[in-house]
Amino acid sequence: MRGTAEAAWLRPDGGAWSEVLRRVRHDAYHLPGYVDMQARSMGGTAAGFVYREGDDVFFLPVVLREVPGTDQFDGVSPYGYPGPASNVAVDDTDFWRRASRALVDALGERRAISCFVRLNPVLEVPLPVLAESGTVVQHGHTVAIDLTLGLEKIQSHTRANHRRQINRARRNGLELVLDDWSRVTTFVDIYHETMRRVGADDYYFFDVAHISGLRAAMGDSVHLVLVDVEGEACAGGVFFERDGIVQYHLGATRTGALSMQPTKLMFADISGWAKQRGNTVLHLGGGVGGEDNPLFRFKAGFSPWHPAFGTWRIVVDERGYAEALAAHHPGADAADRRGFFPAYRAIIG
Prior knowledge:
Blueprint: E1 5-10, H1 16-21, H2 32-42, E2 45-53, E3 56-66, E4 73-76, E5 85-86, H3 93-109, E6 112-118, H4 127-132, E7 135-146, H5 151-156, H6 160-171, E8 175-178, H7 184-198, H8 208-218, E9 222-229, E10 232-242, E11 245-253, H9 262-276, E12 281-286, H10 294-300, E13 308-315, H11 318-328
Parallel strand pairs: 4-6, 11-12
Antiparallel strand pairs: 1-2, 2-3, 3-4, 3-5, 6-13, 7-12, 7-13, 8-9, 9-10, 10-11
């Protein structure tokens, strides 16, 4: 028999947040230091919602932000793939239903009018149950490597032309360098070059302070990877590692090194490194906007496992949501939950 139901908001400081995470399988995106860092950059407050019934736990990290022009708030996932984490099986739909309803009630108590949740593709959740408390939108698929397989099997899943280019990269002397944080400035320089090449929004130009801040906030859960050729970095990445899940968080390649395929070598070597450390999944993420585009197809060349990525959109206060939308975008349809959400934060024109 389960214990009495309890719901609470947790702060990132202190030990309560970390204690909850010890009870559930979670990702690095759930860590209090990471959520707090993201909240500060977004001008919001980090909050962790926990619902308990005895030893059974549901947990969701969010960033609470003021809704412009109101005395109300909304919630949003920090950058990445946090989503709900729980130690309760997805087929226990009654528990998940009670937890979801408790989340909506708790958001209302914080004067939140909406909440936008990015779901984690490798942490299973009961989507039909979540849809009872909001709208679930599927955006496409991501790519993950099953590290519980044997190394030869993992390698056999790599597309043939990827394997040829990885072998050529090795013959050309490309090699991985792990966690040399004295070279973080080098990585950021390559990363900014990459962002300029792909025409990224200003938001994605993370600086040295941000990358170094990840290490300060997350400790051993964040890894800096560089790909060197003749002692010079030509590519790199930032990877998160937590509770058996390795996430490809950021990546970059020198324009002049694209033909050497350093990212393919990096993915191949990181999968072996991650498996050796006892992790069970390497999540490479998806294409731009979750679409089936060249970036997704590039990543799909490493694994046939393509978990779905979705978002969970909750409107807590229908009237407040409609009023905020009318104030920012008169005439917009407040019932549309499948476009940009929350719609009152959309930038038009």
